[in-house]
Design brief:
With 466 residues, the chain is of the alpha/beta class. It contains 20 helices and eight strands. Strand 4, helix 6 and strand 5 form a beta-alpha-beta unit. Helix 1 runs parallel beside helix 13, helix 2 runs antiparallel to helix 11 and helix 7 packs parallel to helix 8. It is globular. The protein starts with a strand and ends in a 17-residue tail after the last helix. The relative contact order is 0.14.
């Protein structure tokens, strides 16, 4: 048995899950050199909601953040989360934009791209995989979004993993963003997948339901190659199993990670200070720190939970959280049982909020929910009830093909639209993914670069990703 590899998530998913992705680069910097010396398989530090948060809330250029992270962690593989055809935004993009985005991600220092499709529709991942293969040294890891329901049998996951291998994935991740895995279910799935594919398998699971450490241990016993963990100050709750604890649990066994507990302990004080600061400032809500087995019933990912709470607080409707949580699985079933991961989690979550606050289901429907039901994001795992679909989209024809096949090349148009703000080639991608937020960010950034003092522009607010 080879040593189990560890992917450290403290610079991305840990803070995305606990404090809605608000950790600035300045809080990361003091620990980067130490993290780089640990010997992690990889450090997940970019993608997911970090891109959005950088320009919307933190006044940071996400591309500059990536370059700085690479400079300070030259000995460690950098890893990111990427939404397939949706890139880092919330809609499918034309293939020319997608390929350009992957080229720039590779050029700026990314090593491993973990890609997923919110509906587990592999048609939305093939172009991404092929583009990654063209970038020297980059690895394409396909994440299978885990969820439960009659459709999601062991055979479903085995078949999906085999198809991932067939279309060129370098590795596979079983991605349990909503903490729905149980220890013995984890063992069963990992064992079955490992028996049917030759490429490495990694486990990503959250602590929301209180089971993550046990799931990781059973995955290791079943033959998983790598697990995702988070340094202990930003572990547990809606985050992940503690890195130090998992390293200690495997120490001296055939699965020993080979990581130094003393070196890990030396990093802990920095993140404990950050934890204290985030709690005192209110960025971390105490509710996000406790395990909640109800997650197994509501099937809501940690990042989605923290953002739903934040959204309801802004509207003065925090007392409606339980009602929204009860509505989420009903909306999900109506929408074809998609796994709850960006953007489907935001779409389902926002619609659940609408249903509760308006007091009538689907009295008001978001544009994104309508698009999901129509097929603009791809094929849902189970067919949507025709009567409900007609209620939502009216006489519009549903989309049956790969959605991106209907999108004309758009890169040159986007370049022309944002030419007035662009100071680096990557800016067109920032604009493409966040066209309403990016101009304000560009103006502020460019003014700072040129020594102009502009009044800080207020950032827009929306339900944010998981």
């Amino acid at each position: 048995m080879a040593k189990v590899k560890i992917t450290e998530t403290v610079l991305r998913d840990a803070h995305q899950s606990l404090l809605a992705t608000r950790m600035p680069l300045s809080d990361m910097m003091p620990a980067l050199d130490q993290i780089d010396k640990i010997g992690f398989h990889s450090v997940e530090c970019w993608g997911g909601a970090t891109f959005d948060a950088c320009i919307r809330f933190l006044d940071e250029d996400p591309w500059e953040r990536l370059r700085i992270l690479k400079d300070h962690m030259p000995n460690t593989k950098l890893q990111m989360l990427f939404r397939g055809q949706n890139m880092l935004g919330y809609r499918p993009y034309a293939d020319d934009v997608l390929k350009y985005c992957i080229q720039k991600i590779g050029a700026n220092g990314m090593d491993i791209m973990r890609i997923f499709d919110a509906l587990n529709d592999l048609r939305n991942l093939e172009t991404t995989i092929n583009a990654i293969k063209l970038e020297k040294g980059m690895e394409a890891q396909v994440a299978i979004s885990y969820t439960t329901g009659d459709t999601y049998t062991t055979q479903y996951y085995v078949d999906y993993a085999k198809r991932c291998e067939e279309i060129g994935a370098d590795s596979i991740c079983l991605k349990d963003m909503a903490a729905l895995l149980t220890p013995y279910r984890t063992y069963e799935l990992v064992k079955a997948i490992k028996e049917n594919v030759k490429i490495p398998l990694q486990l990503h699971t959250h602590y929301t339901s209180g089971l993550a450490s046990m799931c990781c241990l059973k995955a290791v016993e079943a033959g998983v190659d790598a697990i995702d963990t988070a340094l202990s100050p930003l572990a547990l709750g809606t985050s992940h199993a503690p890195t130090e604890s998992m390293v200690a649990a495997l120490q001296g066994t055939e699965y020993d990670t080979g990581l130094d507990l003393k070196a890990l302990a030396a990093i802990r004080p920095h993140f404990m200070e950050l934890r204290k600061k985030y709690i005192e400032s209110g960025l971390i809500d105490q509710k996000m720190l406790a395990a909640d087995p109800k997650a197994l019933l509501a099937q809501v990912p940690g990042g989605m939970l923290s953002n739903l709470l934040s959204q309801l607080k802004q509207m003065g409707k925090e007392d409606q959280l339980d009602a929204v949580m009860e509505e989420v699985p009903r909306v999900r079933k109506d929408a074809g049982m998609p796994p709850l991961v960006t953007p489907s989690s935001q779409i389902v979550g926002s619609q659940a909020v609408m249903n509760v606050l308006y007091g009538e289901r689907y009295k008001k429907v978001t544009n994104e929910f309508k698009a999901l039901v129509k097929g603009e994001y791809g094929r849902t795992p189970i067919a949507i009830d025709p009567e409900l679909r007609k209620k939502i989209i009216g006489d519009e024809a549903p989309i049956e093909c790969r959605p991106a096949d209907l999108i004309a090349p758009e890169l040159e148009t986007l370049k022309a639209e944002c030419a007035q703000w662009c100071e680096q080639e990557e800016d067109v991608l920032t604009y493409a993914q966040f066209p309403t937020v990016a101009p304000k960010f560009f103006e502020q950034r460019n003014a700072k670069k040129h020594g102009v003092d502009l009044e800080h522009a207020d950032k827009e607010s929306q339900v944010h990703p998981v």
